Amino acid sequence: MAILEIVKHPSPILTAPCKEVTVFDEELGTLLDDMHETMIENDGVGLAAPQIGKSIRVAIVDFDEEQDIIEMINPVVTATGGSEVDVEGCLSFPGLFGEVERPFHVRIEAQERDGSLYELEAEGYEARAILHEIDHLNGILFDSKIQRIVDPSEFEEEGDE
């Protein structure tokens, strides 16, 4: 596995809609494994292919060891519900954090690395991360959704309480 370079804003690949994946092969599996290694190395919870220079509809989300890695190939949002504002960051925007409003609940359809279809429902932080990564695949960046920029020192204060 390899650690890949994270593409930083304002690279044009980050704002271009990605192409659908049509070939499910060993190369795709290697890409997913490399994306996971890269995300872990950079302390992320999600990573989309354009963030490593590939304009294809592939993204991953991984919260902790207790859950499986969510690999989303050609994901489509089929339902959303509720609304919640919370702080987000992005590996392509080092040091930028902001409050973003997103649906509290999401249902998606996507494909596994072997091409098989699956459905997934998520709520709260998990839904937020999934929607953030799907936005990347559509060329939408979180900075366009920020309601209020959050200084990193605000996180430290919360932890001190």
UniProtKB/TrEMBL annotation:
Keyword flag Hydrolase: yes
Signal peptide: none
UniProt cofactor(s): Fe(2+)
Molecular functions per Gene Ontology: metal ion binding; peptide deformylase activity
Pfam families: Pep_deformylase
Coiled-coil annotated residue ranges, if any: none
Flavoprotein listed as a keyword: no
Keyword terms, alphabetized: Hydrolase, Iron, Metal-binding, Protein biosynthesis
Function: Removes the formyl group from the N-terminal Met of newly synthesized proteins. Requires at least a dipeptide for an efficient rate of reaction. N-terminal L-methionine is a prerequisite for activity but the enzyme has broad specificity at other positions.
Similarity section: Belongs to the polypeptide deformylase family.
Name used for this protein in its record: Peptide deformylase
